[in-house]
Amino acid sequence: MSQTLLHGYFRSSAAFRVRIALNLKKLSYDQAFRHLRKGEQRAPDFLKLAPQGLVPALEIDGNTLTQSLAIIEYLEETRPEPALLPKDAAGRARARALAYALAMEIHPINNLRVLQDLEKRFGADAIAVKGWFQHWVKETFGAIETSLASSKGTGVFCHGDTPGIADICLVPQVVNNTRFDIDMAPYPTIGRIYKACLELPAFADAMPTKQPDAE
Amino acid sequence: MSQTLLHGYFRSSAAFRVRIALNLKKLSYDQAFRHLRKGEQRAPDFLKLAPQGLVPALEIDGNTLTQSLAIIEYLEETRPEPALLPKDAAGRARARALAYALAMEIHPINNLRVLQDLEKRFGADAIAVKGWFQHWVKETFGAIETSLASSKGTGVFCHGDTPGIADICLVPQVVNNTRFDIDMAPYPTIGRIYKACLELPAFADAMPTKQPDAE
C-alpha cells in the first residue's frame, strides 16, 4: 500500500480537521509541513499537487486529495468504520449542515489570508482584525448553540453519542477562537461538546500544539 | 407526500445551487421568498425554521434542511437518479473538492452580508468592495481553471459529461461575477462549461432573473 501523507500546517484549522478524521479512523499517516506565514504553500512543487496552494492536501491510495471536507467524505466512503456520519439521510443532512455552518460561514472569512488582506487592503490594525474575527464567530456560534441546545439529535457530541463530521469542524474553530479572546460563556452546549471531544485521543493528539511543526 | 418548499432569494447563490439541484433531479417544489436586503431572513418565523437566518432552507420529507451543500447531498442520497456525484470515491472527492473550492473559498468571503460589513466596518466604497470581490474570485478561479484544463476528469462538464455538484456551484458564481465586472477571458475552460450548463433547462430555469421575486 502506498504511503498516506498529509501536507499541513499545525495552525491550519482545515488540516486539523483532517488530522482528527485520520485519527478517528485509526489510519496511520506521515506529515509534510507547509509553513503558511512563510508562504511555503505557494512553492511550485506543492502547487503541482494542489493548484489552489492551500493546505491540507492528502496523498492517499495513489491520489492527491484537497479540501478538508472532501477528504473526510472520501475517508468515510473508503473506510466506513468507525462512521463519521450518521446512517440516516436526515441525520446526515443535520450533521453536514452543522459542519458546513462552521466550515463555510466562519472559517473562510476568518482564515489567515483574509485577515492579512484586511490589514493590507483596509489598514486594519490588530484590534480591528480581532473585531472582525469575533463578529463572524458570534454570528454563527449563537445559531449553532441554539440549534444544538434545542435539538434532540444532539447527544454527547454534536450528533448523537459518537464523534463525527460536525465535531471535527467544531473543535478546530473553538481552538482558533482562543487566539482572538472569544468569550465562550454564551455557548455552554458547544463548550460541553468541545470538552467531550478533547477527552478522546483522536482529538487531543490532533491539537496544533502537539504537531511537530508547532511553534 | 408533503409539499417541498424552498425558502430562498433570487440573488442568493446558495439558493440558486439548490434550485439547480432540484431541477436536475426533476423534483417539483414551491418557493417562499426571503428578501435579504430587507432582512426578511431575520424574521422570527424563519429563524424558527433556520436558526442561522440564512437562505436557502428546504422543507422536504417532513424535515427542514439548511446549508445548500447539505441539501444537495441529501437529495443525492434520497433520490439517487440522475446522479449529481460520480460513482467512484476518487471521482467524488474530485467533484466535491471543486464544489468546495467555489463554495468555501469564494462565496463566503464575497456574499452580501460580508460586503455590507466591509462598508460599515472599514468604510469601503463601491470601488473597494469590487476590488475585494474580484481579488477572491481571481485567487480561486485561476486555480480551478488550471485544475479543470489539466485534468482528464474534466469533460463537457466539470467532471465527466453529465452535470453535477461542481457545476451546480460553478454557475451561480459565474453569474455573480458579472455583477462585479470579472474578466472571464483568463478562464476559457470555466467559460466553456458555464455555457454547456446554461444550455440545460435545469440551469437556465434556475437563473436569478427567472425567479418570481427577481427585481
If you had to describe this structure to a student in words, what would you say it looks like?
The structure is a homodimer of 215-residue chains. In chain A, a hairpin with a 2-residue loop joins β3 (57-60) and β4 (63-66). The two termini of chain A are 33 Å apart. Chain A is of the alpha+beta class and 215 residues long. The model of chain A has no long low-confidence stretch (mean pLDDT 95). Chain A has a 4-stranded mixed sheet with strand order 2-1-3-4, covered by helices on one side. Chain A is built from 10 helices and 4 strands, in the order βαβαββαααααααα. Chain A has 2 domains: 5-82, Glutaredoxin (3-Layer(aba) Sandwich); 89-203, Up-down Bundle (Glutathione S-transferase Yfyf (Class Pi), Chain A, domain 2), CATH 1.20.1050. Chains A and B meet through β4, α3, α4, α5 and α6 of A and β4, α3, α4, α5 and α6 of B.
